Amino acid sequence: MTERGTPGITIVVAMDQNRVIGREGDIPWRGRLRADMDHFKKYTMGKIVVMGRKTYDSIPPAFRPLVGRENIVLTRNQSIDFPGCGKVSDPDSIERIAEAREICVIGGAEIYSLFLPVAKKMIVTHVGTRVQDGDTFFPEVDGDLWRFSKQLLVHDIDERNHFPFSISEYVRR
Fold it and tell me: I need a surface site. Which of 74, 76, 93, 98 has the fewest CB within 10 A?
C-alpha cells in the first residue's frame, strides 16, 4: 500500500443511487452527462488511467486510447493487444507506479474492487437516477474508512445533462 506522502491511487467513478455503474457492457448515461464527462477529462488529463479489459472495450473505438493520458489495461489475458495502451497483469505493478505518480482507476467493477482497499482518494459522480436494468455495480464502501472531503460540482438537468448529478471527493481516513 502507498504511503501518505505519495501520489497514490484515485478511484474515479460515476454511479447511480443504487451503485450501478454499467448496463450491458456500457455506461447507462453515456452521452447524456456531458458536464461529468468534461470533468472526467479535465481531472484525468496528463495522468495515468488504469482500466480493465471490459472498460477498455466499452470506450468507443474513436476515443481509444484516451488522449492526453497514459492508458494502462489490467488484464489476465496477455495475448490481447490494446493499441496505444500499456498492458499489465500484476496489480502490484500499478501500486508501485502510484508511489511516484497519481493513478486514476476508471473501472470496471472488478478493477474497482481490486484497488478500493489501497486507494487514497475517490472522485465520485453521484448520478440522480436509479437504473432499473443495471448489471454492474460499484463495490460496497466502508464508511468508517472514508470521509467526505469536498464537493467538486453540483449540476442540474439541462440540454447537455439528462440527469442531475454531483461530484464529490472522498479521502481515506
Answer: 76
Q: What is the pLDDT of residues 113-165, one digit of tens each?
A: 999 999 999 999 999 999 999 999 999 999 999 999 999 999 999 999 999 99
Query: Which of 46, 92, 44 shows the shortest CA–CA distance to 68?
Result: 46
Residues 6 or more apart whose Cβ sits within 8 Å of residue 123: 10, 11, 12, 13, 43, 152, 167, 168, 169
CA distance 64 to 9: 22
Spatial separation of the C-alpha atoms in residues 115 and 4, rounded to whole Å: 16
C-alpha neighbours within 13 Å on the C-beta side of residue 166: 8
- Please state, as a whole number, how many other Cβ atoms lie within 10 Å of the Cβ of residue 85: 17
DSSP 17: T
Q: E strands, the chain, where?
A: 9-15, 20-22, 48-52, 70-74, 86-88, 103-105, 121-127, 136-137, 146-155, 165-172
In eight-state DSSP terms, residue 165 is E
